[in-house]
Design brief:
Number of helices: 16
Structural class: mainly alpha
CATH superfamily of the largest domain: MFS general substrate transporter like domains
Membrane topology: Multi-pass membrane protein
Helix content: over 70%
Oligomer: single chain
Main location: membrane
GO molecular function: transmembrane transporter activity
Distance between the termini: 20 Å
Protein name: MFS transporter
Radius of gyration: 22 Å
Strand content: under 5%
GO cellular component, one term: membrane
Length: about 450
């Protein structure tokens, strides 16, 4: 067994059971970093209507900015960065990514047109959209395996808090700056000033990352990095991975649509400003993410005890079934109804995402897990960004009236929910045996 150090030299690896004290200071710093990444990554969502009016851009161009500009970095760089995480110095990579999302957010405040905004969001997306595997890899090596669950739960809550803060901080700050136009930078539009202040804060939070030392790598085995063995392994499990990708693909459409167009729906159909809805939308997102993560974790562990094939995916099937009627959130007659039904949709999505990851970790061998999770991430990002944006804008053009976009989102959620339900059901029916069971059987 070998380990790879920062200078890429091979030295004997420490046994997996070697005791090491959990570096909770690093864990909290990594949690704050992920929180910051997801806050700046979603900051434009509650402010996009104001940006659209200021820059005089169309719905199609807006869809490209909020979808394509953030999806491109993840789609192109997810696998190369995953390789770097496994072989190179991670703390330096994290500093570079954090610097990019701070620079992109600050640059957003000074764009003059569609092309400038697209470029600024692209730069921010390179950092915010690719930081997760770096953070997880660092976290795994600063705590014992027996304590990684608690550490990962903290990281998960930090991630959902970041998504919520994009609406809560972005909307509330926008509302304050709109009411006090000379509070900080006189003459700057509130949505621009919000990005400027948030970007400066993100830049300052990059500085503590310089204090993180590259940790020693644990539980590393020398393995071939050839592509063909991995492809053959994927093909062998095509009846499981194929439906799983279909379920993730279809589910990503509804979740992506909610993330991209929620702010526009609240402005156009419910006549709320970002200052009005930022706070409560943030609470709904945070609540749905935390509740869904807890339910997903416990039900995944419970389902594994059932004597049925692929039982670990059963919570994902149930949560997807719940999300189908919850797709009606954008046509609720009141804002209160919108909030509660959206909470149900986001809770179901959090359950599905956690169970997806847990199923891969339990049912696939170690050398296939990272690539499989990266594939799911790429599919979800591309589907939830550019593909969803084009579909929603195209569907909305066929529905007249102020509720056209809400009706489009509802139909999209129902149809894709049924497809996703079928995908997870077939994946469960064709799931491989747990790796631990196969190991015991061959012992």
């Amino acid at each position: 067994m070998t380990t790879v150090t920062a200078d890429d030299a091979e030295v004997p690896a420490s046994p997996p059971a070697e005791f090491r004290k959990t570096k909770w200071g690093v864990v909290w710093l990594l949690t704050l970093t992920l929180f910051t990444a997801l806050t700046v990554g979603g900051l434009l969502a509650p402010l996009q209507e104001a940006a659209k009016a200021d820059l005089k851009i169309t719905d199609v161009q807006l869809a490209m900015i909020v979808g394509t500009a953030t999806a491109i970095p993840t789609a192109i760089l997810a696998l190369p960065i995953a390789w770097w995480v496994d072989h190179k110095t991670r703390n330096r990579m994290l500093v570079v990514l954090a610097s990019l999302w701070a620079i992109g957010t600050i640059a957003t405040a000074f764009v003059a047109d569609f092309y400038g905004l697209f470029a600024a969001r692209l730069v921010a997306g390179i950092g915010a959209g690719t930081a997760f595997p770096v953070v997880v890899s660092l976290l795994a090596d600063v705590c014992m395996p027996q304590k990684r669950g608690r550490s990962m739960l903290l990281l998960s809550i930090g991630a959902w808090a970041g998504v919520a803060a994009a609406f809560a901080v972005g909307g509330s700050l926008f509302g304050y700056l709109e009411a006090h136009p000379s509070a900080f930078v006189a003459g700057m539009a509130p949505w621009r000033e919000t990005h400027l202040l948030t970007g400066i804060a993100a830049a300052l939070l990059t500085l503590p990352l310089l204090l993180i030392r590259e940790p020693k790598r644990y539980e590393v085995e020398q393995q071939s990095i050839a592509l063909m063995p991995t492809l053959r392994a994927f093909w062998k499990r095509k009846m499981f991975l194929g439906p799983l990708l279909v379920g993730n693909f279809a589910g990503g459409l509804a979740e992506g649509a909610a993330a991209l167009w929620m702010g526009s729906i609240l402005v156009r159909q419910y006549h709320q400003s970002p200052g009005q809805f930022g706070g409560w939308v943030g609470l709904v997102i945070l609540g749905g993410g935390v509740v869904g993560s807890i339910l997903g974790g416990f039900t995944a562990d419970w389902a594994q005890k059932l004597k049925m094939r692929g039982a670990i995916l059963l919570p994902a099937v149930a949560a997807t079934a719940i999300s189908i009627p919850a797709s009606a959130y954008p046509i609720m007659p009141t804002v209160t109804g919108f909030a509660w039904v959206l909470f149900a949709l986001l809770t179901g999505g959090a359950i599905v995402n956690l169970v997806n990851t847990a199923a891969i970790a339990v049912l696939l061998p170690n050398e296939e897990r990272a690539t499989s999770i990266a594939a799911l991430k790429i599919v979800a990002t591309v589907v939830g960004g550019p593909i969803t944006g084009v579909i929603v804008v195209g569907m909305a053009s066929h529905f007249s009236g102020p509720n056209g976009m809400g009706i489009s989102l509802t139909w999209l959620g129902v149809v894709t929910g049924v497809l996703s339900l079928g995908g997870y059901w077939f994946a469960m029916a064709n799931a491989p045996r747990k790796v631990a069971d196969e190991t015991e059987a061959s012992a």
